[in-house]
């Protein structure tokens, strides 16, 4: 009987080993560069994509964020700033609250690879030049169905999100995309926190994203609260 705690400890340690996070170096590997053109990913003709799963959870006042989507709109003349709509549902004790945000995404190249030719990341803000932006780096895109993003301000830069476009979201995650997510973000199921469900499409309306409305300057005394957090869901 004394051996039981010992074997349990071995089992627990094995589980921890399996639950280790993915390899961040993939983000800058030259052999993956052809799959990291973020402008090409944003120019997908299927304009809406759904966050299928991610490595972390998001809550507001105890309510879980589900049915997260992004719908890409027009871009500026330079072609590096995109209007898009971000939406999600807050589920709290059976009650649902729909949230929609008009945002801007400005693409750029990360600095770790001077020889990189294409933009591979974006900063998302509530308005042009907004100070509370959030950075995302494209790990992998098949430019059709699936995109994997690194959330640079979450989990010390190790957080990930996997998106499936509208025409693919009700199908299994493409094998290559799932494999890359596992390598870059973690293979254990604990790194795949489900965000999408089959009822999500029924909770949103097909609308074209609009220009973000003008915002008043932030007060010098303003602090980061639920309403002033960087864009993200």
From TrEMBL:
Signal peptide: 1-19
Sample GO molecular function, one term: amine binding
Compositionally skewed regions (Basic and acidic residues) per UniProt: 203-221
Keyword Signal among record annotations: yes
Residue numbers spanned by region Disordered: 202-233
Signal listed as a keyword: yes
Biased composition (Low complexity): 222-233
GO terms for biological process, alphabetical: symbiont-mediated perturbation of host defenses
Any Pfam family: His_binding
Protein name, per record: Putative lipocalin-2 1
Keywords in alphabetical order: Signal
